[in-house]
Amino acid sequence: MAQYQITLDSQTLHQLFLHSSKDSGMAQVLESLLNQVLQAQADEQVGAKPYERSDMRDDYRNGTYPRNLTTRVGTVTLRIPRLRNGKFSTDLFERYQRSEQALVLALMEMVVNGVSTRKVSKITEELCGTEFSKSTVSALCKKLDPLVSGWNNRSLKGKHYPFVIVDALIIKVRENGRVFPIAALIATGVNAQGHREIIGLMLGDSESESSWGEFFTWIKGRGLRGVELVVSDQHRGLVRAIGSHFQGVAWQRCQTHFMRNILAASPRQLRPEIHRQLRPIFDAPDKETARLLLQQTLKTYESTVPRAMECLERGFEDATTVLSLPEKYRRRLRTTNSLERLNEEIRRRERVIRIFPNRESAIRLIGAMLMEIDEKWSSGKRYLDMEEYNEWIQTQKKKKVPSAVTRIG
Hints:
Blueprint: H1 10-15, H2 22-46, E1 61-71, E2 74-83, H3 94-112, H4 118-128, H5 134-152, E3 163-175, E4 178-190, E5 196-204, H6 209-221, E6 229-232, H7 236-245, E7 250-253, H8 255-264, H9 271-282, H10 287-301, H11 306-319, H12 330-333, H13 337-353, H14 359-379, H15 387-398
Parallel strand pairs: 3-6, 6-7
Antiparallel strand pairs: 1-2, 3-4, 4-5
Helix pairs in contact: 3-4, 3-5, 3-14, 5-14, 6-7, 8-9, 8-11, 9-10, 10-11, 13-14
């Protein structure tokens, strides 16, 4: 990754400490930083600094041209370098602009369609600094939508995803003059190399079996293969759809949601105590130890909290599926917490919108965010080291064991 030496003049830096012009000060700093990065990138592509004599020179500068970039601290003016014999190129703003444009675009659409509140109008003005026409909105849509759609519908063929985590996020969308709750269905996966990927996003009318079934048909049609374990909460429609579309694949019920279900059926004063009793069951070294601890817990509490113990006994097998996996993989696969954190990132933006003006706007904003996160995951550290898992799978095959985990379907 390239490193650049950046400098700030005292006047620009001073703006950061002026309370009355906080936003303009940040905009000046951002503008200065970005323009210095552009000049540094021009140095790299030319092979020399301005007016420098160098045998490494490949081109000559030919001035700059202005380009406005809308940010959350205001509009900054970039001076894009021109090169005499070639075209200056930079990817500095590509990832940043996708989600920024999606957020601004969703806000603009609310204004254009007459469904905005004073608060949203104010935010739009602060973000954009100007009023947007329908033609501007249309132009931005044509630029951003194909990128999001192309990523969301990309082929998954040639890859294997042993672990898949699915969950839904409820958002509000305006349709035909009314506001409806819509389920944003999201799937993430861990591929054979141990990297996380966002497999897909789809909007469904609800979390019904039919909506999840359509979602699973879609991602399988794009080439989803090699699934060994699906992790989700215990929503009935979702579980039925998993059993129908992933027959023979193991299912892990999210332990976080399961714990909440048990505690919700317990008296408030006993919840801390019961929580302490349940934790060793989920942390047991193997299924046999977990069953022993289960029986002890049931015997202790079945007379005082029968509903909670009935919930525990009924869901035990599904919630401890991961205990049959090698120990190093259990912690990250026993809950949907990784996807919950992803949902929190979406919520931070979604709270600004509150009500999406249409489904396309929701796909645009959420899809652009997921696209950026997916790129970070693919270029970051591996989420899981799959070497031990692959050896374990081969051992199971040699033993002629279909799987060491409880399968559904």
